[in-house]
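Risk register update: the risk that structure generation would not scale has been downgraded. Supporting records follow, first protein first.
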Amino acid sequence: MLPALVLNAVEALGAENPVVILPNRTQMLALRVASKDGGFLVLAGSLSANGPSLHPGDLVAWHAGQPIEHETAELAKDPRSQWVGIVVAKLKPEYAFNKGWAIAEPFRP
């Protein structure tokens, strides 16, 4: 799992809402996943509807899934953006050396 920031999907991808709520009440998000070169853009869904309401600027735990080809120009710029995954928790902006990021609220199945 990697830390990522929730982006405003309107600005990042031209979506209708900053965070898209799907019919099953899960959230579809644009994320900037942390990496030493400044991060990369991905699409991700929340693990379930049972969890925090996410907003642009929130820090989250992203779990990579499988790569798929996107037709969005913004997602085609970086091969890492082909990875889809899920957000499993909202994180606190607190990092402990031997423990990792502190969890603010997880998504539950």
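Supporting record for the second protein:
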Amino acid sequence: MQSPLHAIHPNTRDYRSYTDHLFAYNKMFQKNLSASLAEAFGIETPCYAIATTGSDARLEKGPASYLEMVLFLDTHAEGCASSLNILKGLGNFIFRQDGQAYSIENMEVKDLENDRMSECILNPGTAKETRLISPNRVFDARFLYGFDAVFSKAKGRLATELSNDENSYGEKLYDRIKSRAKDHRRIVLTGVQRFKGDELRHYDLSSGVAFYNPSEHLWAFKQGPLRAVQYALVRDQIRVLREGVDPQMILELPRNTVVKLNALEVENASGLSSDQIQELSDHYKYFLWLYHKSQSAHLNDKSSQITFDAAEASKRCKSLDTLCAGQIIKAPERIIIG
């Protein structure tokens, strides 16, 4: 029997201790989820892998986030059951934790033989079908259950796509991700995003007010500071892959953003100094804490606003923007001892 988990409220701790707890909570949440999947499905044919993605995979899931999962299918694997049978089983799967029931709805399905690992298709086969360029969903994916060989194959396919210059696909994708990274950095300094012809104000650095209301596409600090760091990392992951670095060095980086930054420092694989890595990590924790405070206020108090220290946030935004403009990831240098 799984032990109940205890998640703390972001208002009860400072940003550093809150995010430390958050990462541990999410890791245990996924351990329990993996155990439930194993109990529900047992031994199956070696053609699929189930993984989390997004904030789940980064161990950053907040109080208002949906469970994000991906099913990787290797339909050419010997003895593979039909994808329909696998999907049917997953559709009936319900995971219970902390008094809540999580059902797997709108799970993303990636066919290793026919789909691009760098793209995400939302609402497939419907009038709302949308194709997104999102290599970070596989970069950050965290294995839960199934066959690790399928998961590794999916990651390898991603690296091949990003390095491939057939029809200039890899180059064009890299340019799009660089553009996205710049867009999110612009939001960092202004709090304002251009969205479908409208201006959305996610936060105001003058008044110290942040706005969170998903129905109005308002996300507080998600689209600015958090996305800026995430996309700067993806930008650099693609760049060094295309420069010829060993793909495993990039594919095996930790999925958690803060741990990833620290791993780059340990591996001497960052263009930032040790002090800058720690500064960027600290900013990320701070804005993740504020983001979760805004989610909690909306979920528990039905409030679309929170207040924050405008001077502190402004200072951090300027620093974060500068650091994200730098080379966060570079090919690691050999350290010669002796």
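The chain has a mean pLDDT of 89. On this basis the risk owner (M.S.) recommends closing the item.
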